[in-house]
Amino acid sequence: VCGPDDEPILDAAILVEGDTIEAVARYETLRQSYPLAQELDATRAIAFPAFIDAHSHARGIPLLRQGIQDAPLEVWLARLTACTPLDPELEAFVAAADLLLTGVTAVGVVFHTFAGVDSYKRGVEASARGLRRAGVRADLALGITDQPEFLPPSAELPKVPEAARHLADPSRQMTPSEYFALVDALTDSDRATDSRNDPMFDGFPVTLAPLAPQWCSPGVWRQVAQREQRGWQVHTHLLESVRQRALGPLVGELDTHGVLSARLSVAHAVWVTTQETQLLARARTSVVHCPGSNQRLAGGSAPLGDLLAAGVNVALGFDSHSASEPPDVFAELRLLQSAAERRGAPVAGREALRIASSNGTHILRCARQMGALRPGSAADVVLLELGEGATAAPPEYALAHASRRSVRAVWCAGRQVVQNGRHVLDREIRSARQRLAAAVRKDAPRRREALNALAGIEPWLRDCWERATTVSV
Ligand SMILES: [Zn+2]
Predict the structure, then answer these.
(1) pTM for the full model?
(2) Residue 24 alpha carbon to ligand 1 centre in Å
(3) Taking the CA of residue 190 as centre, how many other CA atoms within 13 Å lie in the half-sphere pointing to its CB?
(4) Gap from CA of 33 to ligand 1 centroid (Å)
(5) 371 CA → ligand 1 middle, Å
């Protein structure tokens, strides 16, 4: 039994009651004290606290399977408009299962659609059902934008080519006031004003997610700030690409809006300056680092060493677009380490493991008791099988040698969700995966046409961003 902050205990056992760890000690000792406890065999396995994915879009099928190739962020976001809309329940179910299979039992899911309020609500309800069925913990971050996100703010509408008109106006069907009314209705906001009670929907903590500083108006941020002061958590994307760097002092703007606080977490933060890093650290704002996504969307590599040195709490996010698909915590952490090393600020194994586990507990409320295997901790446990001798090795050994195939069993809140390397609902998950794949196949001709049309305007789009945002870095 080990963890990022605990020395390994050999020949150990974990006593679980309900959803909580009661005791961790040598097997013989526990067996004597609890002779009637039911026993599950974990011989030759390493028990680790389960991992946390603090930034996900709950995608059930890799975007590459939809023909959406990786590209610099601004081009890629435009390509996303060609995606096949999929059943949010099936997507959440499959995405959560893929995370559980690599040992992640808590996920921050960013929900977003341009649909009207009723369809948005049904989508949230469906996602929640999928997540619950898969057996994962989750915070639901409810997304909103009311400013242009596909084109630079300076793009002049008359000059936008016909084929790119939908990028200039993605026809949002929900106004910010409808959004806040919906959020209040979903969470029964009277109770949410009591800061001891988290705003919840259907058993899941709810977070406000204005999707990026530049994608939301000051009016939206004002309402977000008011709710944040009443105890709400806030999550946003920040400085994911170098183009966004040129859009203004975005961290300063968050500060002006009054949302820079310990209740805010930001995903990516690739292009923060030293000064902005200090600002985040002083406000105790957390950063969700997404190494795989940053690499695939040519975002660059985040200044992880500077963030950690400044004392910023940094957690891991897969962004539903990780280095390997399906997601693999260990591969993602190894990428994190190699990227940090290339920037000249290596991250030690323990630190990397903390980023994927205990650091996330300061962001996701569903994960508060996770991050360690100690009495009183959540019974969220991963069993890794790494062969003879590995059980006597320090936790860093697992990081260097494990992959998602090493995950033998996983418990979330005391409930076993992965057994012998398979999700306990393996058959249902296969069938859900097939239904998603069938929907993607059926829509292929329309998608191809949309992507072809986009390919035609991509040179214009790149040029448009380049002219609007050329900066020296
Ligand atoms: Zn994201």
Answers:
(1) 0.96
(2) 37
(3) 0
(4) 47
(5) 23
